[in-house]
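Researcher: Good morning. I'm working through a list of sequences from a screen, and I'd like to move beyond sequence-only analysis. For each chain I'm collecting a predicted structure so we can compare shapes side by side. This is the next one on the list. No need for commentary yet; just the structure.
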Amino acid sequence: MSDFSIMTFNLRYPALDGHPVAKRLPITADLIAEAHPHIIGTQEGELDQLETLISLLPDEYIWLGEGHAGGNSGEFTAVIYDSSRFDVVAVDISWLSEQPETVASESWGVSHARTLTVVDFRDLVTGHPLRLLNTHLDHKSEQARLKSGKIMAQHLAEASGPSVVTGDFNVATGSPVYDYFCTELGLTDTGALVPSENIGTFHRYRGPKDGDPRIDWILTSPGLRTVSTRINTFSEQGSYPSDHFPVEAVLRYVH
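Model: Good morning. Structure tokens for this chain:
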């Protein structure tokens, strides 16, 4: 079967919030191993956290990325992928600012530097090219979110095949940046195709609750069709791996 699965997952950085990362990581690994997505766009993970997570996952998973402060420093918009299904052709890591190639650059009143990880994959089953854009938009500045969206639009326009956008967008559906992606750019919000799921994705370790905002999205370009999607509420003995739920989508190429 040529269908493939995508996940977006804010891993929650190692905050001193009563939910230590050492306790959360095994639950994260169990969630991913059970769902077994082919590509995961992650947000907030730091170096030690990501390296430990990879060590707990099946051997086919590989990760790549760069910290928002440059090199291995700060939070990553790391991409984890199943190397038995996808091969990496090219990687571009840039900063969502007026100087995208300048490490740790900031613009438009952001809370801290924000990165965009763009990965060009080749599907080892079908041979199709696939571009992934993974990011974590600023929670404070609407201007920054919209300007970031326009930078991302350039990367979408340059893709040689279909694209998937994963991220924590820090605003709910129906916001200006959501409308930009889904109306102006014509991307499809995979999560909107399951209206029966009314729970949000940012749950603050409290678990699923109707009416919470859905701020983590998987968006697709023409050339891809959503087969299924879900918000994954996995926990172990009442403990959650993050303060966000990951979102999953099974996608199919449209010939």
